[in-house]
Amino acid sequence: MTDTSPTEGRDALLASMYGVEDLSSFSLFSGNFINFGYWADDVLATGEPITVAQRTRSQEDLYRVVAQRLAIGPDDVLLEVGCGIGVGSALVLSEFDPAEVHGLDLSPDQLARAERLNSETLRAHPKRLVFQRGSALDMPWPDGSFSGIYSVEAAQHFGGLTAFAREAYRVLRPGGRLALATFFSPDGQGPAHLAALIATVRSGVDVVRPVGSFTTGLADAGFVDVRAESIGDHVWRGFDTWMDQTEHRNSWGRNWLRGYREGWIDYYLVTARVAADAGTR
């Protein structure tokens, strides 16, 4: 028998989840998106069952909230880190009309799905939408390749956020912008509590880090105007309400909302930029 390190075991679980299991096919998600969603208050206020269209819209809206923070213009060249199946990359290209969107992901299975699902957009815009395999910690582009980087609910899988911060800074141009959304703990106490509640945290698939450690890492990498904004009120209750309508209503996944209410986890939109006078790096 061969011993498996914690990292190897985690990598195998991630490869399975985003490979043969294809998370996008689960009832928790819809529209080929894989995120908790950003939920409008009016969807939950009615008390009516959430429709699949509303669930899909919540996942699209999370992309919209993140992309809006980049102040995207027609000359921008953007990178999505952890693009998965690429539907978010295609949405940003279609709705925000930058010059280019490049999607980076480590999973060959996800990238193969991205090529299939977005085939029409890829044919129509062969140089404006591009998918590439690679690591968030070692991005396959030269310095200063992008004017904007964004990531939606992927950073919990990155092997190290300090290394990601350095790489993001490296591939951004002076004046470039970063916007990232995922879940963190408000302080250092959250992860230990969450491991007892949530299987993916316990297995190491989802790594929940203190948000302050990430913002400090961004500042140490050279970013300025680093901000972390809680958007948990727009995420956790809506996702839990949707989950209650699925076959997962009695699963451990209902504990995300409990963790939020206990103050052990929150959902953040983190933004930062490279100074315009950063010069050659």
Automatic annotation (TrEMBL):
<dbReference type="Pfam" id="PF08241">
    <property type="entry name" value="Methyltransf_11"/>
</dbReference>
<dbReference type="InterPro" id="IPR029063">
    <property type="entry name" value="SAM-dependent_MTases_sf"/>
</dbReference>
<dbReference type="InterPro" id="IPR050447">
    <property type="entry name" value="Erg6_SMT_methyltransf"/>
</dbReference>
<protein>
    <recommendedName>
        <fullName>Methyltransferase type 11 domain-containing protein</fullName>
    </recommendedName>
</protein>
<dbReference type="InterPro" id="IPR013216">
    <property type="entry name" value="Methyltransf_11"/>
</dbReference>
<keyword id="KW-0808">Transferase</keyword>
<feature type="domain" description="Methyltransferase type 11">
    <location>
        <begin position="79"/>
        <end position="179"/>
    </location>
</feature>
